Amino acid sequence: MNISIVTVGKLKEKYLKQGIDEYLKRLSAYAKVEVIEVSDEKAPEELSETEMIQVKGKEGERILAKISPDAHVIALAIQGKMRTSEDLADNLDKLATYGKSKITFVIGGSLGLSADVLKRANETLSFSKMTFPHQLMRLILVEQVYRAFRINRGEPYHK
Question: Which residues pair with 8 in a beta bridge?
Answer without folding.
Answer: 38
